[in-house]
Amino acid sequence: MILAATAAPAWAAADTDTTVGEVVVTAQKREQNLQDVPAAVSAFGESQLQAQSVGSLTDLSAKSPNVVLAPVGAYPYASAFYIRGLGFADVESTFEPSVGVELNGVYLARNSGALQDMFDIASVEILRGPQGTLYGRNTIGGVVSVKTKRAAPGQAFGGQVQGTLGDNGRQEARVGLDLPVHETVGLRLSGLYKSYKGYNHNLTTGRREGDNEVLSGRATLSFEPNDQFDATLVADFDHEKGSGASFRNASLPGQVYYNLSPDTGSPVFSAAQRAKASDVRNVYGNTPVVAKINTWGLALTMNYDTALGTLTSVTGYREFEDTVQSDYDGTAVNFFLALREQTHQQFSQELRLGGEVGKVTYVVGAYYLNQSYDITNTQSGLIYSGARVAQVASQENAGWALFGQFDWAATEKLTLTAGGRYSFEEKEFRNRPLFFPASRTYSSDWDNFSPKLGANYKFSDDLMAYASWSKGFRSGGYNGRAASYTSAGPYGAETVDSIEAGLKIDLLERRVRLNGAVFSATYKNMQTGAQGLTSSGVYESIVTNAGKAKIDGAEAEAILALGGGWRVNANLAYLDARFDKNFTDLTSDGINNPTNNADLPMIYAPEWSGSFGVTYETETPYGQLTANANAVYTDDMYTSGGVINRTSNVQVRPANTLYDATLSLSNDAGWRIAVWGKNLTDEDVINNTFGLGALGELRIYQPPRTYGVEFGYKF
């Protein structure tokens, strides 16, 4: 049944030190061997995630080709995911993501809350390139799909517990329990508690920043009364609170913030002050930064086998609320402060039928999404002459889609694919800008048809070639931080035409696996954003359809089973991303500029990236010893847009190589102890730098060297 694939680990056949095991994925909404899927997909099973001590999706960044998985700098629980140069790095709920995140088959409509601590995870699949046919809106860059563990019906009592101690007061506890209920019912309960004191030191307040406390839980109930029907209900919650992001002042001479704190290197501060400020873990903001999120959700998946195929229903409901207080000058001056208080709800329903008729394998279905949000964004400081003012906004959004994909086995070796998805959605946006006495309501709708054509040819059981052409769709919308009635929008939908060709190869009796792809994508009506001050001195973020871009690239992944307990995994990616046209609203007045700024770089699009990892396993008198080490390289890349990128590298994250390693010992009695470290060489890596127009530049750094010791028991 389809559900078995959604709940089981990605690896269906165990790897050995002399063969690469079979990987079962559901990238095309049905169970398939990864080597039979004519698309660029990376899969990480439970054993891989554990061996690499993966605690968050960001730990997988660049471990899949042309994939950048990072937090939104100012909002650590929100995802800034980029695949093949396309992504989204904002938390405003009117802006649409480019990379879809799916949890247990339910699409997460907002990137806020999408970046949570991972625990009790069965598998992660990363689909690269537009996925419009089967996944729909806002998957123009790709999809990240996470599946959690479940207990099979009738499963006996068992589970696992794990505790972690580490750097900066790190304390973590994880538990997963399978509870016997009935021969037709399975129940798994899991939970996580995490406490962390943080690694930044605020020299203005004397406080430590970057602290975080997490309490998460999940209950998974599976029901299988017969061979024809099964259902799984997942209920989860996540509560997180901490100090949020610490901003460093990276402003340049001539910008307002340049002389407000010593971390800019401004000569108005003494040499001793500037030397102390050179430590990137020292920050100077005088306002307590706060980030809190509460989210919960339900996901119900049901499968029913019929004469026509398997009928699948996926129902999802989620809510989240967040409170974020930020010091948007990063200095001891009360120049620009913001407090965001937001709530969001979403309901989704997917119904699909998948099966085979003769030589045709098919998936057809319908999808519905309804979501809404409300936000109050209160700003204050010298920027507004000491006044405290609030923007109030809300939006309701409904979307419908019909989709289908048909694979025809024209011969024993050749399969032809055709599919498409029709999408329609409507939005109603209400906004009361800062200093405006009343709200204004806007409404609009968009529709799109995204087709797909493809072919794959099996030269042998161990060699497949494929080629495809597809289109993708990113919904239009409104500017949630519009500072006037006229700059609210709407902006139009973004589309992509993508061509991809690839090879999937197993060599030397499956001791070597080599998968590769080349691609070319053209983006039209590209949604581009700019941040800055309006002519009236109000800060806002504006998105307009200002661009046309071309992205070409190549990528390769390899796994080698060397024998003697040794395994190697590696990937290499090349990306050439550039604007053909770029009329971004660089003045943030809601009007496209008349000047073509196509020479400006695209963000989060490193030219070269890759990873190299080694795993060694051996039996000792005390149990199985496993050592894993990884090196991840990312080339120079811009982390924000704007004209400043023409004259300065302030928004560049310099090229870096990060190293992580895990050493574990486990035995047949169920005990496991592991020591792990990340960013072992303690590199100062910029997460992102973003501009505030004439005010200045603010910067957030990724964590320094972190480490921990895990103690676990499986029973």
Automatic annotation (TrEMBL):
<keyword id="KW-0406">Ion transport</keyword>
<keyword id="KW-1134">Transmembrane beta strand</keyword>
<keyword id="KW-0472">Membrane</keyword>
<dbReference type="InterPro" id="IPR039426">
    <property type="entry name" value="TonB-dep_rcpt-like"/>
</dbReference>
<keyword id="KW-0675">Receptor</keyword>
<dbReference type="Pfam" id="PF00593">
    <property type="entry name" value="TonB_dep_Rec_b-barrel"/>
</dbReference>
<dbReference type="InterPro" id="IPR012910">
    <property type="entry name" value="Plug_dom"/>
</dbReference>
<keyword id="KW-0998">Cell outer membrane</keyword>
<dbReference type="InterPro" id="IPR000531">
    <property type="entry name" value="Beta-barrel_TonB"/>
</dbReference>
<keyword id="KW-0798">TonB box</keyword>
<keyword id="KW-0408">Iron</keyword>
<protein>
    <submittedName>
        <fullName>TonB-dependent receptor</fullName>
    </submittedName>
</protein>
<keyword id="KW-0812">Transmembrane</keyword>
<comment type="similarity">
    <text>Belongs to the TonB-dependent receptor family.</text>
</comment>
<dbReference type="InterPro" id="IPR036942">
    <property type="entry name" value="Beta-barrel_TonB_sf"/>
</dbReference>
<dbReference type="Pfam" id="PF07715">
    <property type="entry name" value="Plug"/>
</dbReference>
<feature type="domain" description="TonB-dependent receptor-like beta-barrel">
    <location>
        <begin position="248"/>
        <end position="680"/>
    </location>
</feature>
<keyword id="KW-0813">Transport</keyword>
<feature type="domain" description="TonB-dependent receptor plug">
    <location>
        <begin position="34"/>
        <end position="143"/>
    </location>
</feature>
<keyword id="KW-0410">Iron transport</keyword>
